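cron nightly-structures :: item 1 of 1
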Amino acid sequence: MDASDSIQNLINALMDLDHQFPSRLLYQFSDLSSSEQKTLASCWSKVPLKRRQAFLQDLVSLAENDPVLIYEEVARIALDDEDTDVCISAIDLLFGSEDRHLIPVYLGLLADQTRSKAVRAAVANALGPYVYLGEIEKIKPEILHEIEDTLLHTYFEDKSDLVKRRALEALGYSSREEVPALLRKAAAMRDDLWLESAMFAMGRSADEQWEGSVLENLEHENLAVRIQAVHAAGELALKKARRNLLRAIDVVDDDDLRHEIIWALAQIGGEGVERKFDALLASAEDDEEAAFLEEAMEMLNFTEGSDDMELLSVPWDQTKVAEEDEEDEFEEDEDEFSFEEDFDDEEWQQYVADDDDLADDDEYSFGEFDDDRFN
């Protein structure tokens, strides 16, 4: 059976509402060829809505549990679907995609006020990783500025608070001068939803100016706010949060909060963390908890190793060295202690892609859009 026959059989099964769609066939939609994608796209609108919705939701669930499965080709088709649930599922499947050609599509969806606020919020969230790409100079500056301008416009002009908050969260990665004031404003609001978004964005900022705001919310009465504050403390590696978090592990009841605390401590490191992790691992109630703690221990080892390298690579204080030389009559050639750390680009594969990875030769396109800036 050739490829076209195979995809047609899959499409026929999708359209057959008299029978449940066989779950085993879901795997065959992974990594479609260009011709298969074209065939599916030509028939997509004929697939009944309820089946499209359930189909995309099933693909999202599979992709979350098995990173080997790649449903980007299906998601690109579903991204044009007028149904809110289908479109959001498509955005979920494409989250973290390395394809910059998605940027203009996302910008168009975000600006389209005829789309539901749920779609606009989802696409604002999906633009966050592209802001990060721009900050590490993996996309062109003019494209980064266009994304930031659109997100800022959305923050100020969109009628939905949900969309505004997602735009602010996406801007958390941005070094634009307008952003800190927006984060301070959100944190000062008497609204837990805005405070939650502020904590999330601060965690993305890599900016220690937010230390005070994050620390004061580590025990916030609102669980969602507290979880994001803990998450931010880990992302920012706030050493001052360590003692609070070590105490909190044994008293919190919520599993999500507890896991955030453990992971934040793994990112922060320092005295007492490894000992606590060993104790938790020894008393783990099931294999899933043990596996999570082992991952946290690996992160802690990475954190501690990075800290050691930073200490070794800190430039010498020349004045202090001179004083010690006079006392000890000992000279050290500091050049012998210089280190260069090569950044491992593969660690950021969820967000980072080299230009060579762009699918410039894909036969399937989103439509009439054509802009050399995204090539």
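cron nightly-structures :: done
Residues 245 and 261 are 6 Å apart (CA to CA).
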